[in-house]
Specification:
The protein has 268 residues and is of the alpha+beta class. Helix content is 40%, strand content 26%. It has one domain.
């Protein structure tokens, strides 16, 4: 594929139409998705320093000169363009159309010509027991990198969910829990997207009450194509710039806000 064809793909992705909801606000039940974002890697400190330097610039050209050499900022900006096109707001988990927008966001990120999909895997944990306590502990331990206050809120929501499942025969309690955005800044810059889903169900077999559960964590890894950036940086910059520190803050749901309520969705 020649350079002109690649640039045409980039233009098509950058200027793809935004998503418009077919459903009016409030037409669908909320399917809360809590978001968290972290920066890791040997060059994480360098990326944060670049963000500070970028905000101290006084001209667009000074800002662009930092941006075109800052691959962490590039990853954050590209991911945010996908988010904005999808209309997905990580800080509002109670958007009635949140899940629809979230899935569109994931699709747009994975189709971005700036990335190569290098890993996609779903881990499934299924169990039957007399208690949900061990399951909740096991799920909580998989939330690597999730900030502590959000982790506690999710564990609390799981406990509430387990209570409903335990007292509702043959009704499955299902929840899309969170998306975790990880930008890895090292020799290879990568974006990791983790999503989590859990089902809980209580049933009586031969007079004994059993508790069944299914927990799924999906991980997608996208490697940034640094070779494309010299010819693509200006195209992206002309649309928007998202500093890495702003990305980390903007993609993390506030566990203390009134909107942080992981409501249950019943599915028979």
């Amino acid at each position: 594929m020649d350079e002109q064809e690649i640039l045409s793909q980039i233009d098509a992705w950058l200027h793809a139409p935004a998503m418009f909801d077919d459903e009016p606000l409030g037409a669908a039940a909320p399917t809360p998705i809590v978001s968290s974002a972290i920066l890791v890697g040997s060059r994480a400190s360098e990326a944060l320093a670049n963000a500070k330097a970028m905000k101290a610039t006084t001209t667009d050209e000074e800002e662009f000169n930092i941006f075109k050499n800052d691959y962490a900022c590039a990853c954050a900006t590209i991911v945010d363009i996908a988010r904005n096109k999808a209309g997905y707001n990580p800080t509002n988990p109670n958007d009635p159309n949140g899940k629809k927008k979230f899935l569109d966001f994931l699709d747009r990120v994975q189709k971005a010509p700036f990335f190569t999909l290098t890993h996609a895997e779903t881990e499934r944990i299924q169990s039957e027991s007399k208690s949900y306590d061990q399951l909740i502990d096991a799920i909580a331990n998989t939330f690597q990198g999730l900030i502590e206050k959000n982790k506690k809120a999710i564990v609390s929501a799981l406990a509430d969910m387990a209570k409903v499942a335990a007292n509702t025969e043959s009704t499955k309690q299902t929840k899309d829990l969170f998306v975790q955005n990880v930008i890895s800044a090292s020799d290879q810059y990568s974006v990791y997207l983790y999503t989590c889903h859990v089902d809980m169900e209580s049933a009586t077999k031969k007079g004994i009450k059993e508790k069944q559960s299914l927990f799924e964590v999906s991980c997608t890894k996208l490697d940034f194509k640094k070779s494309l950036w010299p010819s693509a940086a200006r195209k992206v910059y002309d649309i928007t710039v998202v500093a890495i520190d702003d990305f980390l803050e903007g993609y993390t749901t506030d566990a203390e806000s009134d909107t942080f309520k992981l409501c249950l969705e019943e599915r028979v």
